[in-house]
Amino acid sequence: MSATRYTYLGPEGTFTEAALRSLPEAATRELVPMVSVPAVLDAVRRGEAAGALVAIENSVEGGVTATLDELAAGSPLMIYREVLLPIAFALLVRPGTRLADVKTLTGHPVAQPQVRRWVEAHLPDASWESAASNADGARLVQEGRFDGAFAGEFAAALYGLEPLVTDIHDAKAATTRFVLVGRPGRTSAATGADKTSVVVWLSDDHPGALLELLQEFSACGVNLMRIESRPTGEGLGKYCFSIDCEGHITDRRVGEALMGLRRTCPQVRFLGSYPRADKVRPVLRPGTSDVDFTAAADWLSRCLDGRGEV
Questions:
Q1: Mean pLDDT score, 115-121
Q2: What is the full DSSP assignment across 4-32?
Q3: pLDDT for the residue 249
């Protein structure tokens, strides 16, 4: 395995690269752009890279399906940390291009919902065609295949383009969440402000099946931060659930919830416990702290010894 190589969705100039470069360890790694999310993650699976940074969630569009599906399929991978990156787009054009000259647009599919209203207001007659990434869209503009691309302003110089309009976003607080993924290993130590990710498959389709899954978290006092259904590819109506919850696997409430899932579901894929980028600590309900779980276990032991009320 190349311990000094990280992969990311390229080419150079993507938001993913910007997020990756925000990590301190990126300064000592070889950063290798790849053509797609599957290619990025497969490089880690094959041992050609120690880690990969991929977008997993956007505050406007929701989950990044390519990443969710890749983490649910294939050989297991684990998330070791996350990065939150505020997103604002620039309209990149070839030098000398005016706004009235822009008839064709491109960008990553996740970018389109984030600039849709701006396009409708300023370029209502322009056509859109998706690119593999925002930086790839900039490259296509450089080659003359499109008039404008929505990408990070920082990508303009890389492709000989000019930012015609900057700070474009339909939602001002737009943020994309990225995760650093590696091959399975020991989780990092709990920090008190952590997140745990899993993928869960239901045993069968019956009334209340999803409720039963959710009750495992509720009964243990574990707050869900994201839950999304994704098709398994095995036929209509066959879904798995991608879930993020507050806490670390070593927290008793989280461990108990995961064991409950494993008892009742045919497959649970643990994707990792890792520090939250926003460093927010959970607010625990009464009875759900590690101390409370330990006290309950001690009480059960006393009951078995005939000392339950002592």
A1: 95
A2: TEEEEESSTT-HHHHHHHTSGGGGGSEEE
A3: 97
